[in-house]
């Protein structure tokens, strides 16, 4: 079996330009199926594969049209996620976060313009829990802490972490509804500790920050009202996330049925 080091030449920083010929979603799904053992061994979906997912629109599926995105209808994106998950559950789970930019629509429009300044294909990952307290400073919050389960973080351009909430009266700490604080991925330390049985390729590693300041304009309440006046962003964002996770499981279930049929030697469908 190959080691992780054998694959290092295919892994670069997220967002680094990779020359990609014109490819289709079918091409990407076929390659995912071929490389799924590699994703498992790496403990993440490598950046060259993320770039190919970008090329077929996975990570602009929930980018607002006003910023050059596709803002796909949920049903259309769910079908894409199910197909990818049938090829590989881990890649499907990571692709499902192509819907996560719907959360970023709660940020001020000026902040979103900065996020999409380099194009609509932006990968957003999050490690929201456990929520960490944050110290209020003049420009926003001073954030330190350790978060878990940041799926897809190694291929992300932007990473969100969960902090305690809105200002407490007079205390200078946080309370109330929790906030998500958004940072460029390069500012967040990834703790390479994802070691599980199944879905290893999701790369759901831990995150760490120490005394990083985030401006208020880069924080939002998850599921709060969108600042984008487009149909997709009137759709309940938390419910949408539940649906994309269900689509991953549907793809896995379909693959399991196909495997059982193949093992039984029958050509009949279930």
Automatic annotation (TrEMBL):
One of its GO terms (molecular function) is oxidoreductase activity, acting on the CH-CH group of donors. Residues 30-97 form the Acyl-CoA dehydrogenase/oxidase N-terminal domain. Gene3D superfamilies: Acyl-CoA dehydrogenase/oxidase, N-terminal domain, Butyryl-CoA Dehydrogenase, subunit A, domain 2. This is Acyl-CoA dehydrogenase type 2 domain. It comes from the Bacteria. InterPro entries: Acyl-CoA_Oxase/DH_mid-dom_sf, AcylCoA_DH/ox_N, AcylCoA_DH/ox_N_sf, AcylCoA_DH/oxidase_NM_dom_sf. Pfam families: Acyl-CoA_dh_N. It comes from Pseudomonas syringae pv. japonica str. M301072.
């Amino acid at each position: 079996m190959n080691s992780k080091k054998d694959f290092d030449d295919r892994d670069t920083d997220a967002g680094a330009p990779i020359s990609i010929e014109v490819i289709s979603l079918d091409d990407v799904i076929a390659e995912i199926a071929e490389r799924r053992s590699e994703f498992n061994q790496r403990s993440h979906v490598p950046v060259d594969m993320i770039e190919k997912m970008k090329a077929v629109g996975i990570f602009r599926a929930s980018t607002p049209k006003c910023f050059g995105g596709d803002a796909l209808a949920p049903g259309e994106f769910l079908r894409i996620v199910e197909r990818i998950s049938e090829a590989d559950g881990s890649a499907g789970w990571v692709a499902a976060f192509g819907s996560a930019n719907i959360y970023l629509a709660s940020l001020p429009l000026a902040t979103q313009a900065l996020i999409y300044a380099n194009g609509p294909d932006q990968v957003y990952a999050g490690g929201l829990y456990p929520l960490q307290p944050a110290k209020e400073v003049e420009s926003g919050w001073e954030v330190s802490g350790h978060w878990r389960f940041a799926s897809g973080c190694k291929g992300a351009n932007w990473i969100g972490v969960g902090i305690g909430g809105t200002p407490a009266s007079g205390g200078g700490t946080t309370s109330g509804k929790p906030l998500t604080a958004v940072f460029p991925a390069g500012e967040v330390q990834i703790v390479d500790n994802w070691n599980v049985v199944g879905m290893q390729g999701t790369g759901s590693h831990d995150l760490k920050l120490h005394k990083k300041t985030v401006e208020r304009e880069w924080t939002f309440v998850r599921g709060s009202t969108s600042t984008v006046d487009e149909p997709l962003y009137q759709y309940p964002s938390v419910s949408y996330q539940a649906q994309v996770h269900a689509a991953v499981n549907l793809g896995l279930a379909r693959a399991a049925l196909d495997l059982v049929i193949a093992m039984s030697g029958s050509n009949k469908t279930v």
